Amino acid sequence: MCLLGRQDMATGSTPKTGKALDPKTVRRLAQNREAARKSRLRKKAYIQQLESSKLKLAQMEQDVQRARSQGLFLGGGPGANTSSGAAMFDVGYARWLDDHGRRMAELQGALHSHLPDGDLRAIVDDTLTHHDELFQLKVVAAKSDVSHLINGAWTTPAERCFLWMGGFRPSDLLKTLLPQLDPLTEQQVVGICNLQRSSQEAEEALSQGLEQLHQSLADTMAGGSLIDDINMSFMGQMALALGKLANLEGFVIQADNLRQQALHQMHRILTVRQAARCFLAIGCWWQMKAIVER
After folding, report:
1. Quick check: pTM over 0.70?
2. Of 18, 133, 189, 272, whose Cβ has the fewest other Cβ atoms within 10 Å?
3. Distance (Å, rounded) from C-alpha 257 to C-alpha 245?
4. Distance (Å, whole) CA 249 – CA 154
5. What family classification does the UniProt entry report for this protein (predicted)?
């Protein structure tokens, strides 16, 4: 039966009637088989991805528990008031920093050895992807404990002086990078200056929105009316305040989107060797962080 079915599909005839199928039907059946095959492959890949994610999550949870027992989180020893979301981010960020240091060493070695542009581009693209992973890590953290990103407990005291909505200001970074990328063409200079200006405008808009949110939050907490049931009044105000505070997550995610877009735009504007120097310059920030922490 199995051999007969295979022969029928190959010849384009049906097992019941033996009549040859028209080319359109044969083509449609072939397309259906191919679609089913791809669907099975996608399902298999999805299951493998889920299994991999479960293993990574289990490993991260073990790291969190180990770090907590050793009092490694910023802000205290065992029993410190650290949420699980903040703890997960701290562990993930520490891993990211370690990996980032290795990637910067690889990138610097590739530049010094005058690696061909094609090989260097693969390393540069991988470095950009690595930064994207940090932004994704911060999205998860923002949704679980946005205050941890805002207060900068995961950064050094020096970094906190320049912290803006859980990270760096894109316009400040661009201003710092520009002198280190010479020689630039006139078109590149114009592109970077336009990017810096648009980033600054977006930063100002987000800052104004955040200020309005803070004011609205303060007004909500101060605007409760005096009623007989004071507890109910307080709970109502807190519910309104928490609802508005949830908007803080959106501001941090938008700020990170702005940072991510700036990196991708620079990657497009620069040549591959300029982009490599750009990422090395950005990497100096995390190298300085490591020095401060020592």
Report:
1. no
2. 18
3. 20
4. 17
5. Belongs to the bZIP family.
- Do the Cβ atoms of 141 and 148 come closer than 8 Å? yes
Residue 80 to residues 60, 143, 152, 162, 288, Cα–Cα distance (Å): 19, 21, 16, 26, 27
Q: What is the pLDDT along the chain (294 residues), one digit of tens a residue?
A: 444 444 444 445 444 555 677 888 888 888 888 888 887 887 777 677 666 656 665 665 555 555 555 444 444 443 445 688 899 999 999 999 999 999 999 999 999 999 999 999 999 999 999 999 999 999 999 998 998 999 888 888 878 888 999 999 999 999 988 888 989 999 999 999 999 999 999 999 999 998 888 787 777 666 654 444 445 455 555 555 556 667 889 999 999 999 999 999 999 999 999 999 999 999 876 565 545 544
CA distance 86 to 129: 23
Residue 86 corresponds to which amino acid? A
Which long-range contacts link 112-118 to residues 24+ away (Cβ below 8 Å)?
A: 117/272, 117/273
CA distances from 88 to 22, 73, 148, 266 (A): 59, 10, 11, 30
Residue 234 tokens, joined:
């307080």
Tokens of residue 266, six digits: 């620079």
